[in-house]
Amino acid sequence: MNPTLVAGSANPALASAIAAALGVGVTACTRERFPDGETHVSVDGNVRGRDVYVVQPTAPPADSHLVELLLLADACRRAGATRITAVVPYFGYARQDRRRGAGEPVSARVVADLLGTVSIDRLVAVDPHSRSLEAMFAGSAEAVTAVPVLAAALRPHLHGPAVLVAPDLGAVKLAEGYAAILGLPVAVVRKTRLSGETVRAEEVVGDVRGLTPVVVDDMITTGGTVAAAARVLVDAGAAPGLVIAATHGVLIGRAPQILGELSPRALVVTDTVAVDLGTRLPVEVVSVAPLLADTIDHLHRDRALGDLVVYR
Length: 312
Ligand code: R5P
Description:
- By secondary structure, this protein is an alpha/beta fold.
- Helices cover 30% and strands 25% of the residues.
- It has helices at 12-22, 62-78, 107-117, 133-136, 147-154, 172-182, 224-235, 255-261, 289-300, and strands at 4-7, 29-33, 39-43, 51-55, 83-88, 122-126, 140-144, 162-166, 186-193, 199-205, 212-220, 243-249, 266-270, 284-286.
- The strands form three sheets. A seven-stranded mixed sheet has the order 10-9-8-11-12-13-14, sandwiched between helices. It has a five-stranded parallel sheet with strand order 1-4-5-6-7, sandwiched between helices.
- Strand 2 and strand 3 (39-43) form a beta hairpin.
- Helix 1 (12-22) crosses helix 9 (289-300).
- The longest helix has 17 residues, at 62-78.
- Bound molecules: ribose-5-phosphate.
- Ribose-5-phosphate binds next to strand 11 and helix 7.
């Protein structure tokens, strides 16, 4: 029997592309919002005895997409699904994986626990911000990586000597993943986050003089991190013509404008998050649908994920 795909409302285009790559349909569901704002879902197709994959990135608005994912999973369980895998291409709340001050929760842990309460057996995320997600989620968690697909998209934009730049310490392992594929050196920006919207880049560690900087990150939200990195890269003598790549183009608020002002030579993201940028930003979007279809196919057949998974 084929895997059964259920799609939340966060990224139906990605769910359809995954379904097409697998050669299956997307199970019919109904979603509505009650007048008081509560989410109501109903899984209308048959999931009894099926191996079900619920595709729902918890992108903004993170809370309502998360609730919808929980409700869909619960509906599938109650309708007799044998096994439920949450495919959460972009896993929101992953940045809150530890307390940064007294009185804070560990929100990533709370979300991981919530997934367990609705009997989600397995979790698949693409380049999650925190690998500790694996330790937080009681079931099995697979972190698959979009780095190979993004690196392939970057190649045509790399003409001369270039350097991969991790815009903060947390992105170093990711940059090393790109470096292994593209054969480029790695530099790191020392960053301090002052608030949710403000960061300060202190300095670049590593040699970037005369090299095209390729800034790579797991996600771009406000664009503040990339913009701060761009400033210190100029000061450190990097060549003009910034190249930017990120797995998750969350791109809220003024992010398109902030990134546009950097006049990047290329900006590449994946489709884990559905963002309508209109014509405001020349962005290249590469799809993770083949990666996720492959992942689902392997999991469904109980095969090892091999190179699809990242162990960073
Ligand atoms: C933080 O550690 C992440 O890896 C990203 O660097 C950050 O979330 C990007 O956010 P923003 O675009 O708002 O600076």
